[in-house]
Amino acid sequence: MNYSFELIEIYMSKMGIASFSALSREIPKLSQPNISEIKKAERHLTPEQGMFIAEKCGLDIGEVLVKLDIDRASTPKLKEEFTKVLKRLAGAVACISLIVGLMTTPASDDSSLAAS
After folding, report:
1. What's the domain of life for this entry (predicted)?
2. Is residue 113 assigned to a domain?
């Protein structure tokens, strides 16, 4: 399955949409024939459509855009380079999350041990 169609399925599930007809009325500039082409991996969502879905579904916009670029990449080398970018982004996010977690963890109070 391609990432564009995966995003469509995520959106339909989160928004409770049962038909491609209803979906085509919700996502900007997406027609039923476009959806059929996306399902067959003959077409991909545009960055704007990907961003719309990411915002509505609470997905990371940067990750969605890079994954759409990976999907559209025309050569294995290009796909590999986009995948490297995505891994670097994921690593940076993990690092920032760790730092924020450490900064918000209360310091232990060692003064109670000194009084003993």
Report:
1. Bacteria
2. no
Q: Domain for residue 68, yes or no?
A: yes
Give the domain range for residue 25: 3-104
Pairwise CA distance, residues 62 & 57, whole Å: 14
Q: Is the residue at 111 inside a domain? A: no
Q: What is the pLDDT of residue 114?
A: 55
Q: What is the pTM of this model?
A: 0.73
Split the chain (116 residues) into runs of 10 and give each run's mean pLDDT.
95 97 95 96 96 97 91 88 83 83 75 55
Which residue type, as a one-letter code, is found at position 20?
A: F
Q: Following DSSP, what letter does each residue of the chain receive, concatenated? A: --HHHHHHHHHHHHHT---HHHHHHHSTT--HHHHHHHHTTSS---HHHHHHHHHHHT--HHHHHHHHHHHH-SSHHHHHHHHHHHHHHHHHHHHHHHHHHHHHSPPP-THHHHT-
Do the Cβ atoms of 32 and 21 come closer than 8 Å? yes
What domain count does the chain have? Answer: 1
